[in-house]
Amino acid sequence: MKEKIYTIPVTDAFKTECECPICVLEKKLEDENIEYVLGPFLMEPDGRMITNEKGFCKNHFELLYNTQANRLGLGLIVDTHMCEQNSKLKKMYTDKADQLKKDSEVSMIKNLSNKVSSKQTETEKLVDDLINKLSELESSCTICSRLEQTMDRYIDVIFYLFFKEEEFKSMFNNQKGFCLKHLKQLLVSTKKYLSPKDTAIFVNSLLSMQIQNMERIQQEVNWFTKKFDYRYNDEPWGNSKDALIRSIQKFVGYCSLK
After folding, report:
1. Cβ atoms 185, 22 nearer than 8 A
2. Is the distance from CB of 78 to CB of 47 less than 8 angstroms?
3. Alpha-helical runs (H) found in the chain
4. Spatial separation of the C-alpha atoms in residues 27 and 138, rounded to whole Å
5. CB 7, CB 164: distance < 8 Å
6. Any idea what DSSP says for residue 52?
7. DSSP 213-226
8. Do 23 and 254 meet the contact criterion of CB atoms below 8 Å apart?
9. 51 with 146: CB under 8 angstroms?
10. Which residues contact 201 (CB under 8 A, 6 or more apart)?
11. Which of 11, 94, 166, 222 is most enclosed, with most CB atoms within 10 A?
12. Could you say which DSSP state residue 229 is in?
């Protein structure tokens, strides 16, 4: 039996009335990680090494700041993260500073002689290195990494429970589908965790349920638009009052819509 530390959050999420139980799992896990990073993780030497190296993505910087829970702690994290990144950037520049000056002088001579070399200059190499470094930093995030690892574990548990627990399988098949982000994650993960036979069984159940619910929510959002027509003023809203929000989340996953 998979560890209860993983099965309990999964089964709780699948008992929730929602458009995507995996979004429920991910949001709860994200909230826990925001709290953890601003608490115990802040004081762990290994934790600070990770945040110094990876930092956070735009979304998680916003969430960390907007909690207003520990601004001093976040300030300390940002301070040491910036020190490390500034040091790396400065080193990349100072290591090439003399060569940059030479390249600029050579470039002036070439312009005067109207000759262009196809050989990559040290300046161009530095620019490429800087672009790669900044792209790497832009795509790195301490919380995203933690979420990815645990969410992968949750997906493994979902597959396990689907094939081992009839009660969970029934609960799975009665869901309202998944957002497209997590639909993709489930499909990708079949290659990692399931045999060809189990993949066929799982994907058949998944897509049958997903398509049915994608059509359902499309009809609900369609009725939402019709309710703005005076001819439908006296008609009941049904389930369509929040259909626009739910349909957006069906496409992109959980997002904070007001």
Report:
1. yes
2. no
3. 4-14, 21-37, 40-43, 45-54, 58-66, 71-94, 97-113, 122-138, 142-164, 166-173, 180-193, 196-226, 243-252
4. 22
5. no
6. H
7. HHHHHHHHHHHHHH
8. yes
9. no
10. 163
11. 11
12. S
Task: State the pTM of this model.
Answer: 0.83
For 53, the 3-state DSSP assignment is helix
pLDDT digits 0-9 by tens, 176-221: 999 999 999 999 999 999 999 999 999 999 999 999 999 999 999 9
DSSP 227: T
Across 202-239, b (16+ Cβ under 10 Å) vs e yields beeebeebbeebbeebeebbebbeebeeeeeeeeeeee
Nearest to 51 by CA among 125, 176, 140: 140
35, amino acid identity: E
Q: Answer whether 161's CB lies under 8 Å from 168's CB.
A: yes
Residue 67's φ and ψ, nearest 5 degrees, are: -65, -30
